[in-house]
From TrEMBL:
It comes from Streptomyces solincola. This is Co-chaperone YbbN. One of its GO terms (biological process) is response to stress. Residues 36-155 form the Thioredoxin domain. CDD domains: ybbN.
Length: 324
């Protein structure tokens, strides 16, 4: 089974799942009851990844989803892509530290659940938020794409249902906490300096390559990730004719390529909110591959500005409202 994206805008019809409004009310009631009882106790890291079967689905997934988003990993022992994807999801569950819980469902032993969710092939990943089921993606997707999807999921869970996750007691189970990140091979000062010099000289291709050289050894290096996003943006914009791009974007609001190019120009020109707003509107107007292209490009522009920037936070919320 080749990896393919599944639209995040659909909702799976399960007999056990309540309507969205009822689900939200249920989530609010659960939080109120928890508050009256002194709050939900912290869970050990081992509780962030659970095996679920048909008998426990109601309590382990539906009820739990009133407190925290539950990501479901449909897998099987014989499935080789599953063996690539599952460890990534388990590691991210630990890294996200209670912002979602990972439920693993063996399709061979739980055919009814597989049918209820309409699973066509595995690995397949869904989420349940306040009793509402959403398809996320299918296949062993790249980790960067998985992170973007999870970021959107936890934000929607918080904004629409007030689900901020569960507390994790890292000391509850010695040795179960996420392993400390390995010390990067480094140092990367020379490569990073070379990238900056290439940027200053207008050699965007050289800067891109220098940043990628750092990321080969240290994939999470924040300076290299940010620099790469900026260098790629500048490289794209350098090939554009602003007048042609602006006219094309104005004449064809539904032309995804034109809107992407115009958003790049907006961002480089300092019009950050205009760039974000343009692509959010493009996502709203489009569907299928065009919508995915606009969404993924917008997520890439978020990387250029930085996830903590208030403009990014605001735009993520707008994007989530359009998608869901």
């Amino acid at each position: 089974m080749q990896p393919r994206n599944m639209s995040m805008s659909g909702v799976v019809d399960l007999a056990a799942v309540k309507a969205a409004g009822e689900a939200k009310a249920k989530a609010e009631q659960a939080r109120a009851e928890s508050a009256r009882q002194g709050g939900t106790p912290a869970v050990p890291p081992s509780a962030l990844v659970i095996d679920v079967d048909e008998a426990g689905f109601e309590s382990d997934v539906l009820q739990r989803s009133t407190e925290v988003p539950v990501v479901i990993d449909f897998w099987a022992e014989w499935c080789q892509p599953c063996k690539q994807l599952s460890p990534v999801l388990e590691r991210l569950a630990a890294e996200y530290a209670g912002r979602f819980v990972l439920a693993k469902i063996d399709v061979d032993a739980n055919q009814m659940l597989m049918q209820q969710f309409g699973v066509q092939g595995i690995p397949a990943v869904f989420a349940v938020v306040a009793g509402q089921a959403l398809p996320l993606f299918q296949g062993a997707a790249p980790e960067a794409q998985i992170r973007q999807t999870l970021d959107q999921l936890v934000q929607v869970a918080e904004e629409r249902f007030g689900l901020t996750g569960i507390a994790v007691d890292a000391d509850a189970a010695p040795g179960a906490a996420p392993e400390a990140a390995a010390v990067p091979v480094g140092p990367y000062d020379a490569l990073l300096e070379a990238a900056v010099q290439a940027l200053d000289a207008g050699d965007f291709a050289g800067a891109v390559q220098a940043y990628r050289n750092v990321l080969v050894d240290d994939p999470e290096n924040p300076e290299a990730k940010l620099g790469l996003a900026q260098a790629e943006l500048l490289g794209r914009v350098g090939k554009l004719d602003p007048q042609v791009v602006r006219k094309a974007a104005a004449d064809a609001p539904a032309d995804v390529r034109a809107q992407i190019d115009a958003a790049d120009l907006d961002l480089v020109g300092g019009h950050v909110e205009d760039a974000f707003g343009r692509l959010v509107e493009t996502v709203r107007r489009t569907a299928g591959a065009d919508r995915d292209a606009a969404r993924l490009h917008l997520l890439g522009l978020f990387e250029v500005i930085g996830s903590d920037d208030p403009r990014v936070v605001k735009a993520r919320g707008a994007l989530a409202r359009v998608l869901f």
